[in-house]
Amino acid sequence: MLDSLSNSLKDAVKKLAGKAVVDRAAVDELVRDLQRALIQADVNVKLVMGLSQSIKKRALEEELPKGMGVRDHVLRIVYQELVSLMGPEAEVSLKPQTILMAGLQGSGKTTTTAKLCRYFQRKGLKVGAICCDNFRPGAFTQLQTLCQRINVPIYGDPKEKDALRIVKNGLTALRDVEVIIVDTAGRHALEDDLIEEIMQINAIVKPSHRWLVIDAALGQAARDQARRFHEAIGIDGVVITKMDGTAKGGGALSAVAETNSSIVFIGSGETIDDLERFEPNGFISRMLGMGDLKALVERAEDVMEGGDLDVNAMLKGKFTLKDMYKQLEALNKMGPLKQVLSMLPLGGMNVPNEVYDVTSVKMERYRIMMDSMTDDEMDDPSLLGTSRIHRIAMGSGSSVDDVRELIKYYKMMQRALKGFKGGGRFSMNRMMKQFGG
Ligand code: GDP
């Protein structure tokens, strides 16, 4: 789903760059590109239409926020609408609980059961699994092999024909376990006896959660499956498997919409560790090529809380050496500079490689040199002529070249930041306002 959809979406949004007003033709074109990309990724047509309508309406009717370019305005709307299509972020509790796994044969249910055992085990919980799939020969041995590898107890009885009895015995056998994952039988297609059996298992287990396992390559059939299981036991979370093997994956979104639930986990490989928590904001941000905006916004907020960036001055377009130092300090607190910058929506901004190269050692050197500057010089670096540079070098125990390097770095940063959003302004605050919604 990620790659091809992501590329089409990025291309579609790129077309808006440089536009001064939101015009209907441009929005129509974007929405058409978006529709094509989503339908190619197997997203249900009805969902796509609903999404298109909301994006069109909002892009044309909502006022262009002050200081925001057309591209970012529309990008933000596309982002928010796609996130809401994914459903709210699913919570995964770390309390004692029982999870019932539903899904058709071959969807990846047994593998996912083992992966979940691993997930909760890593969180420090006592985990166990029950295999009541006595329909597929080998299901028990498969789960047993996987669970034995991670020392997780499993209950099953391949000779017992009655799945309900297996579940009852399993619950007794695993009564000391905090998290129980119940793997149920899948059939080739949705047969009535499968639905009947899972309803009875559900009644006995009274699970905390009922998760539906869906193969990412399934396409539109996902919707019918989801509906049947949802009507039978009430699905409250979806696990999409085999995301590593398909360019599509949109069918699973239909399952989410059908069950009014959310994607909880994504399976991304055959080994027991190939399971990822699903986080809609990050997923969509990456898909739109915007980096992980939510993570960035949160980290930026953390830094801002204790930070003393002169955001007001910077909003006026003033960027002094003092600002640069504070920015570097703030960015440094947020993590490696390169990683932080890769999360920024730097769209058209051309960041010279040297900007990334500033290490904490270098920053410490910059700080020492700046300590030898007067307040006036920090506020107005154009004052820094040859004699002042010599004085600063002497005062800080650095060479003249070091001071010149600092000034060069400052100028490069200033130029780069001027290019940011074309407005000559760069501030976390402004960026947070843009993307925090
Ligand atoms: P079940 O019949 O629903 O229990 O399905 P299984 O757990 O036996 O999985 C069916 C096949 O899909 C197996 O070959 C698994 O190794 C494979 N599989 C499961 N999850 C994933 C995944 O996330 N990625 C990949 N590549 N293969 C998976």
Quote the CATH topology of the largest domain: Rossmann fold
What is the mean predicted local confidence, pLDDT?
80
Radius of gyration: 27 Å
CATH architecture of the largest domain: 3-Layer(aba) Sandwich
Could you state the order of secondary-structure elements as H and E?
HHHHEHEHEHEHEHEHEEHHHHHHHHHHH
Biggest sheet, open or closed, and with what strands and sense?
8 strands, mixed
Task: Please tell me the total number of domains.
Answer: 3
Heteromolecules bound: guanosine-5'-diphosphate
Estimate the helix proportion, in percent: 55-70%
CATH class descriptor name of the largest domain: Alpha Beta
The CATH superfamily title of the largest domain: P-loop containing nucleotide triphosphate hydrolases
- Number of strand segments: 8
Which stretches of 5+ consecutive residues score pLDDT under 50? 303-315, 345-349, 420-437
In terms of DSSP E residues, the strand content is 5-15%
Distance between the termini: 25 Å
Number of helical runs?
A: 21
Return the structural class: alpha/beta
Strand order of the largest sheet: 3-2-4-1-5-6-7-8
Shape: elongated
Domain AAA+ ATPase: 95-294
Protein name: Signal recognition particle 54 kDa protein
Enzyme class: hydrolase
Subunit structure: Part of the signal recognition particle protein translocation system, which is composed of SRP and FtsY. Archaeal SRP consists of a 7S RNA molecule of 300 nucleotides and two protein subunits: SRP54 and SRP19.
